[in-house]
């Protein structure tokens, strides 16, 4: 296993958010939530200790496996592809997001983020997708900042838990229920029934997995 060891200079740049452990960056179609179906460039930052047992990107968890990468290099890659970029992970807010979002905004790019909200909010965002997790609940500031709340449904208890989060978000926040991928056949009937009874909620599917794209 290759570990990215950092010298003091790199550690200082990571601390300042001028370098980030980059797992991957790719041009695809947003598969989930309010912007489903729109082409976007994804930046996946390594590092997460939230520990969702069903996480579909566990390879992201160990930040040491992903090379510290200069924000300018990340942004140059992104700007070539799309005017919309989605920052995801891992958990993006384990890192200082100010330099990355400043540099993307300077290029006129619209910036979305996928987050559990477990770490303090940093940077400036055009769209915040909050996907809360039981193991590490969101910081308070995310309930005000969220443009969409996307709750992953693994079993019927998650529907009640979803309503508890909906009570905390701002009034214009869109509400989505997304089946946990391995449990989709079991939970889809629960989700569809719930959404028809509670139409403020909408269904979100991981459409990229059906389309066979990243
Ligand atoms: C991999 S996470 C990375 C961003 C951040 N750590 C978070 O959890 O929001 C991206 C999105 O995928 C969702 N997700 C992860 N594993 C999933 C699974 N097995 N089924 C459905 N959604 C999943 C997360 O809830 C989140 O909305
Ligand atoms: N196509 C596509 N859409 C996505 N929406 C959120 C994703 C994520 O992993 O954060 C994701 C992803 O991994 N791929
Ligand atoms: S918070 Fe996101 S990246 Fe972290 S384990 Fe959960 S789903 Fe995976
Ligand atoms: Mg994904």
Automatic annotation (TrEMBL):
Its cofactor is S-adenosyl-L-methionine; Mg(2+); [4Fe-4S] cluster. InterPro entries: 7-CO-7-deazaguanine_synth-like, Aldolase_TIM, rSAM, rSAM_sf. It catalyses: 6-carboxy-5,6,7,8-tetrahydropterin + H(+) = 7-carboxy-7-carbaguanine + NH4(+). S-adenosyl-L-methionine binds at residues 54-56, 90, 131-133. Residues 35-214 form the Radical SAM core domain. GO terms for biological process: tRNA queuosine(34) biosynthetic process. Pathway: Purine metabolism; 7-cyano-7-deazaguanine biosynthesis. Binds 1 S-adenosyl-L-methionine per subunit. Binds 1 [4Fe-4S] cluster. The cluster is coordinated with 3 cysteines and an exchangeable S-adenosyl-L-methionine. Its EC number is 4.3.99.3. [4Fe-4S] cluster binds at residues 48, 52, 55. Keywords: 4Fe-4S, Iron, Iron-sulfur, Lyase, Magnesium, Metal-binding, Queuosine biosynthesis, S-adenosyl-L-methionine. Substrate binds at residues 29-31, 44, 88, 214. GO terms for molecular function: 4 iron, 4 sulfur cluster binding; carbon-nitrogen lyase activity; magnesium ion binding; S-adenosyl-L-methionine binding. It comes from the Bacteria. Homodimer. Belongs to the radical SAM superfamily. 7-carboxy-7-deazaguanine synthase family. PANTHER family: 7-CARBOXY-7-DEAZAGUANINE SYNTHASE. Catalyzes the complex heterocyclic radical-mediated conversion of 6-carboxy-5,6,7,8-tetrahydropterin (CPH4) to 7-carboxy-7-deazaguanine (CDG), a step common to the biosynthetic pathways of all 7-deazapurine-containing compounds. This is 7-carboxy-7-deazaguanine synthase. The lineage of its organism: Bacteria, Pseudomonadati, Bacteroidota, Flavobacteriia, Flavobacteriales. The gene is queE.
């Amino acid at each position: 296993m290759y570990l990215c060891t950092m010298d003091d200079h790199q550690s200082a740049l990571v601390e300042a958010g001028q370098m980030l452990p980059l797992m991957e960056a790719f041009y695809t179609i947003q598969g989930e939530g309010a912007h489903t179906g729109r082409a976007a460039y994804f930046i996946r930052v390594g590092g997460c200790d939230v520990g969702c047992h069903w996480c579909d990107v566990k390879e992201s968890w160990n930040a040491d496996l992903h090379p510290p990468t200069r924000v300018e290099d990340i942004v140059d890659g992104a700007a070539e592809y799309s005017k919309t970029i989605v920052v995801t992970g891992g958990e993006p807010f384990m890192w200082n997001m100010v330099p990355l979002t400043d540099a993307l905004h300077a290029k006129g790019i619209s910036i979305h983020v996928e987050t559990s909200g477990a770490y303090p909010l940093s940077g400036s965002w055009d769209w915040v997708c909050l996907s809360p997790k039981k193991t590490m609940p969101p910081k308070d500031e995310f309930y005000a900042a969220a443009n969409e709340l996307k709750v992953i449904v693994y079993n019927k208890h998650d529907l009640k838990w979803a309503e508890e989060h909906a009570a905390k978000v701002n009034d214009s926040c869109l509400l989505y229920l997304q089946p946990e991928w391995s449990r989709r056949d079991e939970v889809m009937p629960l989700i569809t029934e719930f959404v028809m009874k509670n139409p403020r909620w909408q269904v979100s599917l991981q459409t990229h997995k059906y389309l066979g794209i990243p």
